[in-house]
Design brief:
There is one protein chain. The protein has about 650 residues and is an alpha+beta fold. Helices cover about 40% and strands about 15% of the residues. The chain has 17 helices and 19 strands. Strands 2, 4, 5, 8, 9 and 10 form a 6-stranded mixed beta sheet that branches. Strand 4 and strand 5 form a beta hairpin. Helix 3 runs antiparallel to helix 16. The longest helix is centred in the last third of the chain and has 22 residues. About 55% of the residues are buried.
Length: about 650
């Protein structure tokens, strides 16, 4: 999410003006105190909707959308009382099929005192149907929302609308055919692409570049996931009647990337108008901070969407060849664009980063670009460069499997794509012919996945939420003690940006599935994984799909309860779009505690707004969780 709404900007400016006025009054002798005493108080920010944790004494939280027939199925029970035991009944299509005692979980007070937690595991329920779980503790009784259990569950249930979200998010304003580049007189055609978020009509390959370690892959990631899905997972999409739809969206993305490729060989990072602020010129520009100050940082480094844009163009070229069709531009053009953009960044990439240095995000996004260029061309030079990038990425890995972002000790954490290092290494393994190199990469993948499980399970964690390691900022830079927590810290290098992490969770789910399979898990607990890896992968998606303390499915149009609409800062809500999600408490520098949509309206974007990386990563994760064999079975049953 990138939005600081116009109303909030006005409020910030008004408060600044009020502060100056009060400071002047304080310098006036004599009657100053009397004048200040009669000064009207500042207007309280509007809060039209506020969400609190549920107050019912007994809650049964479950994935409200879909669960895999042969995968993990787990319910979390919260109880505000003293009883230490209770019972459950699993119902399928309204009929009881299993009964038992609740399993007590470790004491946990991070998100509220005086709560007891229990779990119910019904992974052995493998019949297709609608499931509910009834729980009794003492005199209290509660029933979960219902969830569909079937093969290929989340993709079959949501795939059409996940794809539909991208079409609904297309930006088609004709003004974008002739926009100015910041601090130049040049005008360029940047028509097409997707609006970034519900409340933001801007278009981003990435943003937050000024903070160096926060760049999320936005439209560039969407373009690649769609092209990859249409090409590499054709059987899956075709089995559900979605192949034409995913091809159309993939070519829409590739066409936009062609248009934003400058004649000099760099890609434009951002099309921006300060979040629709009246009177502000929409243009190709970089920007910085919560004020949206325009900057010249509009040339995309690998980490600022350049790497994934190259990967998307290369994959779109393969898709065009396979499909025998293309968008406005053909497959040969997509590939030529990808090769030209890579050649340019190979030479100039450090210059396009705010600090002039490459970091881990450059490594894993450049590695994705090189893998796809090699897949599209077979040229050995791309394999040679991929080996260097993979080695650089692995060199950033610590002994416990975690990564550092820079050449020092800053821990790698990311609110949108924490799984991408493992995914990029897994992609590289597929093109590496040398056994010794492959083995070193597989060891790095195994170590990274072990770290994710270890840090997540290091403390009481009833929902299995993926934890992370971070530092707070001092004078604008990460420094000091290395901390761990559930949510990203609010005191970070961006100076203002923190929000829910739906994309991060889906990326980690995908990483656990893809990386786990590369390690030849061959487990039977779901998705071809061992029990601990399968449970981790499932828990991250379950959180977004309703198994969280608020009982809210962040996927709009699916589940028993969805986020509220807050037009002022969160904007439009599309079916198939996913809200930012739950965060730490607003007053916590470290992101401790828990919060969702408490208000005021001007801040609700942090929780409620839909953002393109969330649906992008959810689509990729559910693609990863579904094998083509399962897709074939699903097609036969239709």
């Amino acid at each position: 999410m990138t939005c600081v709404p116009h109303a909030r900007k006005n409020a910030i400016q008004a408060m600044a003006a009020l502060t100056i006025a009060l400071s002047s009054l304080l310098q006036v002798a004599g009657a100053a105190s009397a004048e200040l005493a009669t000064t009207a108080p500042a207007t309280k920010p509007k809060t039209s909707v506020s969400v609190s944790l549920p107050k019912q004494p007994l809650l049964v939280q479950i994935n409200q959308v879909a669960l895999e027939r042969l995968g993990p199925k787990r319910v979390v029970v919260e109880f505000a009382g003293e009883a230490g035991e209770g019972s459950y009944t699993v119902l399928r299509d309204g009929q009881p099929i299993k009964k038992g005692d609740l399993r007590p979980l470790q004491p946990f007070a991070e998100w509220g005192p005086r709560k007891r937690y229990f779990s119910v595991d019904f992974s052995d329920a493998e019949e297709v149907g609608k499931y509910e779980v009834e729980v009794r503790i003492g005199k209290q009784r509660a029933v979960s929302a219902s969830v569909l259990v079937r093969d290929n569950a989340v993709f079959a249930t949501t795939g059409t609308q996940l794809l539909g979200y991208f079409k609904r998010s297309r930006h088609t304003g004709d003004a974008d055919r002739n926009l100015r580049i910041f601090q130049t007189s040049r005008r360029v055609n940047v028509w097409g692409g997707w609006q970034d978020a519900g409340g933001d009509k801007g278009k981003y390959l990435s943003h937050l570049g000024y903070a160096n370690h926060f760049n999320p892959q936005q439209a560039s990631m969407a373009a690649w996931v769609l092209a990859y899905g249409a090409h590499a997972r054709k059987a899956l999409f075709a089995a559900h009647g979605l192949q034409t739809q995913v091809e159309d969206e993939a070519f829409w993305g590739a066409d936009y990337l062609h248009r934003i490729l400058d004649a000099e060989g760099y890609l434009y990072t951002t099309v921006f108008d300060q979040w629709g602020t009246p009177g502000v010129e929409r243009m190709v520009t970089g920007y910085e901070g919560s004020a949206g100050t325009f900057t010249t940082l509009y040339r995309s480094a690998f980490r600022a969407g350049g790497g994934m844009a190259i990967a998307a163009l290369a994959r779109a070229s393969m898709l065009a060849k396979q499909a025998g069709r293309h968008g406005e531009f053909d497959g040969a053009q997509y590939l030529a664009d990808a090769e030209r953009a890579y050649a340019h960044l190979r030479k100039f990439n450090p210059q396009y980063g705010a600090d002039g240095k490459e970091n881990i995000i450059d490594d894993y996004t450049a590695l994705m670009a090189l893998v796809e260029l090699h897949n599209a061309t077979g040229h050995s030079r791309y394999l040679d460069d991929a080996r260097e990038r993979a080695a650089s990425l692995i060199a950033r890995q610590q002994a416990d499997g975690g990564f550092v972002s820079d050449g020092g000790s800053r821990p790698y954490y990311h609110a949108a794509e924490a799984g991408l290092p493992v995914i990029s290494l897994s992609a590289y393994v597929d093109i590496e012919p040398e056994r010794g190199r492959r083995q070193r990469v597989l060891e790095a993948i195994g170590s990274a996945l072990k770290h994710e499980l270890a840090i997540t399970n290091a403390v009481a964690n009833p929902y299995g939420y993926a934890r992370q390691r971070f530092q707070l900022t001092q004078d604008g830079k990460a420094a000091g003690e290395i901390l761990e927590g559930f949510f990203i810290p609010h005191r970070n290098e961006t100076g203002y940006w923190w929000q829910g992490e739906s994309a991060r969770l889906a990326s980690l789910s995908a990483a656990m599935v893809i990386g786990g399979r590369k390690l030849a898990d061959h487990g039977t607990a779901g998705y071809g994984l061992s029990a601990d890896r399968a449970a981790y992968a499932q828990s991250q998606l379950d959180w977004t799909l309703g198994r969280n303390p608020y009982g809210i499915s962040m996927l709009y149009g699916f589940g028993k309860k969805n986020p509220p609409t807050v037009l002022e800062s969160a904007g439009e809500m599309f079916v198939g779009g996913i809200s930012n999600g739950i965060t730490g408490a607003p007053g916590s520098d470290t992101g401790a505690g828990i919060s969702f949509a408490p208000g005021p309206d001007s801040e609700q974007w942090r929780w409620v707004e839909q953002w393109i990386p969330h649906t992008t990563w959810m689509l990729f994760a559910v693609m990863a969780m579904t094998t083509d064999e399962v897709a074939g079975v699903a097609a036969e049953r239709r």
